[in-house]
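queue> pop job 88
queue> type: inverse folding (structure -> sequence)
queue> payload:
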């Protein structure tokens, strides 16, 4: 199945010492670009974190955010006795005020309790937990990308089906264009020479029609476009077997299909074919937009 380049994933993991939340966001990019942000003390894990992402993502701009919260135990907190006594002395010595401060109020004053050092990171010891969170985020990201990819595949196949329908109509109409041109030419020339009394040789008419047919022949373009359509649809169907992603291949085939349609439009001197070419161009424009999202 196709994979979209846009998605979001979140993963969580815990250990006795830390709680980790990893978030992944991906958007379109022709290449793979990874940015890494983390809590203080864990920036050195960027190479390992990027390696995990590269093992799962082939194209796109990926932003990885890793938040690490250290677990605090009661024994990690310390009471600053000097600060506590200083507060107590100042409160009891206030002139004209006799206050006997309670301990619970004193403990809420700034500086009385020292919290544990939140930056006491241990990247090497914490890496297995962080790795678990990142892998969970990657699983979540892949699930969203697969769902988006299924929708992309359905839309792309619908657009190529529309092109195939219009192409079938062009195949039917194309052989009739020369006959219609010959009839129009014969009528116009006949009206013109009738006024001057000139005789038109049949060979002259045949030669002119032959030149028109040669200039407007689109049989090769039709064959190539049909081949591109088959290849495009097969690439989508077989995407699950590809290890490198199929987005770039689909982009290339879409460009080739557009080139053939443009040639058909420029060579075919027929209003019905021109109308069908307009419909094919509209469908292929949608294809070109959508393949930009495919990994």
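queue> result:
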């Amino acid at each position: 199945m196709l994979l979209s380049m846009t998605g979001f994933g979140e993963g969580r993991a815990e250990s006795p010492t830390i709680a980790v939340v990893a978030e992944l966001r991906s958007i379109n990019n022709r290449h793979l670009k990874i940015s890494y942000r983390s809590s203080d003390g864990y920036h050195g894990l960027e190479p390992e974190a990027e390696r995990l992402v590269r093992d799962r993502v082939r194209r796109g701009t990926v932003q990885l955010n890793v938040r690490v919260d250290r677990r605090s135990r009661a024994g990690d907190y310390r009471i600053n006795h000097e600060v506590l006594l200083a507060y107590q002395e100042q409160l009891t010595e206030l002139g004209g005020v006799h206050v006997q401060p309670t301990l619970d109020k004193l403990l809420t004053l700034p500086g009385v309790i020292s919290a544990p050092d939140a930056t006491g990171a241990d990247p090497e010891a914490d890496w297995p937990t962080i790795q678990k969170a990142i892998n969970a985020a990657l699983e979540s990201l892949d699930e969203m990308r697969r769902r988006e990819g299924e929708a992309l595949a359905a839309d792309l196949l619908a657009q190529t089906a529309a092109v195939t329908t219009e192409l079938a109509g062009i195949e039917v109409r194309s052989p009739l264009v020369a006959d219609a041109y010959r009839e129009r030419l014969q009528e116009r020339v006949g009206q013109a020479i009738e006024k001057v009394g000139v005789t038109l040789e049949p060979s002259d008419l045949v030669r002119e029609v032959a030149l028109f047919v040669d200039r407007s022949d689109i049989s090769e373009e039709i064959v190539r476009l049909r081949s591109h359509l088959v290849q495009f649809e097969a690439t989508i169907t077989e995407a699950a077997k590809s290890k490198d992603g199929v987005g770039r291949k689909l982009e290339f085939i879409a460009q080739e299909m557009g080139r053939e349609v443009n040639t058909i439009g420029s060579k075919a001197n027929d209003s019905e074919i021109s109308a069908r070419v307009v419909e094919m161009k509209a469908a292929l424009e949608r294809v070109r937009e959508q393949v930009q999202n495919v990994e």
